[in-house]
Amino acid sequence: METQRLITHLRHVDLAVPDFDTQVTFYEDLWGLTRVADDSGVVFLAAEGSPEQYVVRIREASEKRLDLVAFGAATAADVDALAASLLAKGIQLISEPGKVDTPGGGYGFRFFDIDGRTVEISSDVAPRVHRKIEARESIPVRLSHVVLNSPNASATRDWYTENLSFALSDTLSHPYIGDVMYFMRCNPQHHSLAIAQGPHTSLHHASFELRGVDEYMFGTGRLLRAGVRKIWGPGRHMAGDNTFTYFFDPHGNTVEYTTELELLDEDTWHPHVYDFSQPEVTDQWGTANPMNELVAKESFNDPDRGVFVAPPL
């Protein structure tokens, strides 16, 4: 019998950085997010096309780290059921289910995943008043997906499958080094989460969806003209069939503009294993700079200082 899936979608990704003002300016003025709330040393940024209260939280801290990744659940009962299930399996909770004290409120809890990163699950968050993104408006519609580096990616894949009912959509594999990435879904979107094989626990990248290919290209061009460092792209992946251009934010986190991520028929979908050494797998169009070891290394990021250390808020 298939396990009931209680997680519905990806909500937000929360970053801590030393140079707070520079980071906020990048995401607000260049990346195209909207400041919706702030406190001393904390800013909440929304995507104009998304009902989520915010998709990125930036916190001022002495060290760079990934504070947390947040997912949604449909009801408070589902939140309670997930917390009880994790506790029964001996998984460490950071907080018990209760009131969420961030924009939009809600009901949720936090815990450490197998790699020690903080995960939040919440329900009953008030939707934000949002709007339709217009043609040629090159700002994010929503947060698309997050990719996490793990020193044991297959174990992390299994952990999210067994404990949070994520399903495997596709795998990237290499003939000499084995599996390099697992694409995981919690709804018909090809992936809301992916797990990459890396040298340490860290954020691989966060991806933001634009309205369409035209808006994606206008956004890519805007960042290039502003002198933002491009890592890889523009191109179109095979797994997920989505467009991609990857950039560095001011603290060396990789962020992606994308669009047209594949929606699956989950009843008939069978996961593929794609050969990562084939250029058409990494980029169907053939327009991106070639994927090589140097490009791949850019996404390893710094070792996460937040492993098994809960963020202060």
Automatic annotation (TrEMBL):
Cited InterPro entries: Glyas_Bleomycin-R_OHBP_Dase, Glyas_Fos-R_dOase_dom, MMCE/EMCE_epimerase, VOC_core
Keywords tagged on the record: Metal-binding
Source organism of this protein record: Cryptosporangium japonicum
Domain VOC: 9-124, 142-260
Keyword Cell cycle in annotation: no
Coiled coil ranges: none
UniProt lineage: Bacteria, Bacillati, Actinomycetota, Actinomycetes, Cryptosporangiales
Keyword Lipid biosynthesis: no
Classification via Gene3D superfamilies: 2,3-Dihydroxybiphenyl 1,2-Dioxygenase, domain 1
Stated name of the protein: VOC family protein
SUPFAM superfamilies registered for this protein in UniProt: Glyoxalase/Bleomycin resistance protein/Dihydroxybiphenyl dioxygenase
